[in-house]
Design brief:
The chain has one domain. By secondary structure, the chain is mainly α. The protein has six helices and no strands.
Length: about 170
């Protein structure tokens, strides 16, 4: 399992780096960065400004290659986080360990929901409803909160959970 986790962890890191390069190099527009970058969400006005500033090529990149990578990345990251929790919390009962290992799935659900909401914003453009923007923004905030929780649970599993003596 640890070999698979190393591979999925490395793949997650590589995909994140590609997303970062695309976001910073090609998808910034009008002084606004991609929707995913806003930990505290974004306003209706700033989202509309960004949507207005995006060129047709940027929108196509965002909806195409960027979205595809941004779909694979959270799946790989979720598998990695869940696997780290499962393997590092060996001293916990299987029920508790399984429940805690599934918590990164909340992050996955929210990230994929955010991606769908952002795709809707991009497809409609600046005239998109305020409700759609606020929903996408709420997914962004919730995604970052759930990812932080999943990472904290990884640290807990690694450093604080009871360990089993494998030599016994």
């Amino acid at each position: 399992m640890t070999r698979i986790l190393r591979i999925t962890g490395a793949l997650s890191a590589a995909l994140f780096l590609v997303l970062l390069i695309l976001a910073k190099g090609w998808l910034g527009a009008g002084g606004f960065s991609i929707f995913d970058d806003h930990f505290a969400g974004y306003s209706v006005a700033s989202a509309r400004d960004y949507l207005s500033a995006l060129s047709a090529e940027q929108t196509a990149l965002y909806l195409g290659l960027f979205r595809w990578i941004d779909t694979v990345f959270p799946i790989m990251l979720t598998f990695t986080l869940a696997g780290v929790i499962w393997t590092q919390a060996r001293g916990m009962s299987r029920l508790v360990r399984g429940f805690v290992a599934l918590t990164p799935c909340v992050y996955l659900m929210l990230d994929l929901s955010e991606n769908a909401a952002v795709a809707h914003l991009l497809n409609i453009g600046p005239q998109v409803s305020a409700g759609a923007i606020l929903q996408a923004s709420a997914y962004t905030i919730a995604k970052w909160i759930s990812l932080t929780l999943a990472m904290l649970l990884c640290v807990w599993a690694w450093r604080l959970s009871p360990k089993v003596d494998d030599a016994a």
